[in-house]
Amino acid sequence: MNGLSGNPDSPLIGDAASLLREAAAHFNKQEFRAAATICLKLVDSHPDLGEAWHILGRIGVETSDFTNAVASLARAASLEPENIAIRFSLAQTLDKAAQPERALAAWRAYAQLAPEDHVAQMRIATTLHKQGGVSSP
Question: In this structure, what is the dihedral angle of CA atoms 50, 24, 120, 95, given to the nearest 10 degrees?
Answer without folding.
Answer: -90
